[in-house]
């Protein structure tokens, strides 16, 4: 059987082809009784819209790209940040009847494909999460007229709107809690310096210690468990008297707990540990991890919401910052 056409639906409903097109494309400028006639004819004939043809008319694909400049191994590891962002974005786009296109850009070839795809008219807008360095792709897309929203404050000068969490406030609460608990030699496992979360969390840690006349003790990781373990060993070598650690991610904090256990250091009696993120794993470490909670799914929902407003022709805040919360468990 041949696929039903718009003209056949129009004849069955007793209306013009243009009226059917307006109803199928969601126009509200058609009277309710006429919409019912058209929808009844659509159901009776089993008509399915040709979205490729419709996009040529509407100049919309109803698809949104979420670009993660990470490898598949990193995105689908046990770091629940990325799945949380994807869930939040997906929920918001599904509610708006938009299709999510997930693009993992963990290599130069993948980046070239992403640039070609997003500038080729295949998506209506682009979301970025986990941007490294002053990545030129968000600005490039913005200059070509494609709506773009980033997760996290872009490094360097940028006109791209973004959604972030209160990095400074979250870290400040964590480090002040350690100071108020009597800890005197507080180190940090910082995130990578090419990511704004790594930069901002390290800056906030240094500011609080400087205000308290304490020296910074820093080792750098890359937000993974393995890097946290290695960084903790470095901190213990640099300052054996260390009595507290703020780790810029829960996975790095988990690695730090492992290194402390191997070194025979009791947590929290000898060394307190606080992480950042409050991923599910934080409740099940031994002992359960104190951490700074960021609203990961809400972050994804807000990212998508900002982009949907741009697509609707609305103005958006250039920077939205969501609150964080210190969650005290048993490590500090």
From TrEMBL:
Keywords linked to the UniProt accession: DNA-binding, Transcription, Transcription regulation
Keyword Lipid biosynthesis: no
Lineage summary: Bacteria, Bacillati, Actinomycetota, Actinomycetes, Micromonosporales
Ranges for domain HTH lacI-type: 4-58
SMART domains listed in its UniProt record: HTH_LACI
HTH cro/C1-type domain span: 5-29
GO molecular function: DNA-binding transcription factor activity; transcription cis-regulatory region binding
One family name in Pfam for this protein: LacI
Protein name, per record: LacI family DNA-binding transcriptional regulator
